[in-house]
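In the laboratory, one determines a bound structure by crystallizing the protein with its ligand and collecting diffraction data. In a computational setting the workflow is compressed into a single prediction: the sequence and the ligand go in, and a structural description comes out. We illustrate the idea with adenosine-5'-diphosphate.
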Amino acid sequence: MLKPTIPENEMMRLQALKQYNVLDTLPEDAFDNIAKIASLICETPISLVTIIDNKRQFFKAKTGLQINETPKEIAFCAHAINKPDELMIVDDATKDNRFKDNPLVTGNPKIVFYAGMPLVTSDGFALGTLCVIDTQPKHLTNEQTTALKALAGQVLQLLELRKTNIELKKTQTKILEYSKEQATFAYIIAHELKEPLRMVTKFMKLLEQKYKDRLDAKAKQYIQFAFDGALRMTGLINDLLAYAKIDREHLKKEPVATSKLVLDILSIQKNIHGSNLTFEVGALPEIVGYPVLIKLLFQNIISNAIKYQPTLQKIIKIKIDCSEIPDKWQFIIQDNGIGISSDTQNKIFTPFKRLHSGEQYEGTGLGLAVCQKIVVKHGGSIWVESEVGVGSAFFFTITK
Ligand code: ADP
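The predicted complex, in structure-token form:
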């Protein structure tokens, strides 16, 4: 028996193989089906997708064989991968010097015929083979060898897909970690800013009180500007803290009666706006979510619906409803406000994106970014349909 020679690039090949994370994985239909088809087309009782490791061959898919692996030194496929571009054919192993005393030939599964096509990556590394095996001498037709090569190409595509998925997951994890880091950073900054801001406000107040007889009108106006700025900054810090907190807090999902929650929010607004505010609320469901966040979500969208109204609007009209779509609740909050032009509708969910100046409409540009984070945390999405001068309808979904 001849042991397979070790490919020159073996270290690098094994390194490349690691990136596919395929060794010792459970059987998968996609691979099993290709092995079955290879067996049917080539009319052999056995077919395998083999992966050649350091000291063994692992069977990722197998038809007509029970074992999961064999030592590398008796593996036919370890010979096959040494000529990556060729289909290796052994017509009769019992008469072949390389294999006639191989335990896989003298004992079970009693290999006589073998044909194996290497699975070669775009970097030129042969990871294993797709092979067909028979227990009697055999000859493959041209069509059968063409089909076997094509099927080996399909196996390779599955392996490449697997590698791409692994890379994607790694990138996704990195992005998640990065965004958590960012949120933590934003949280710390916002927290740290609170104290100096409190100092500024406190000393401005002292200045105003203790020196009021000595300050002229201009100085008093400047102090007022400073107060306004400090107030705006407090709002910004609070919104930033709310935004950063969504990722930081370990909350528990609970049933949330959205009907009661919405009516509570609206009744507070009704106390402020009186008959200038009317609303229509449809049948709203009990959902499962993070109660504090769901409240913040409705509060932000409803307060925007009330805030973004034309100056001369007499009556603010808000409609809230919910419908069921597969696996999700879809809420809609509609207003008769100023509307949003179609080219800016997709930008408003970005942190700090505001379409209006602070003089026109107060705000920090974080409300809808908070909403988007909350919705994503509930497995849903958020979007807007709107027409300038007519009003806006905010839609969001929450996984059931
Ligand atoms: P903020 O209200 O603090 O500016 P948001 O993130 O809540 O921040 O909203 C982002 C921008 O989207 C707002 O500045 C406003 O221009 C626009 N917007 C949000 N809701 C509405 C609405 N109901 N009608 C019109 N424009 C809206």
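Residues 300, 304-305, 308, 335, 337-338, 340, 348, 353-356, 363-369, 392 surround adenosine-5'-diphosphate (CB under 6 Å). Keep in mind that any predicted model is a hypothesis to be tested, not a measurement.
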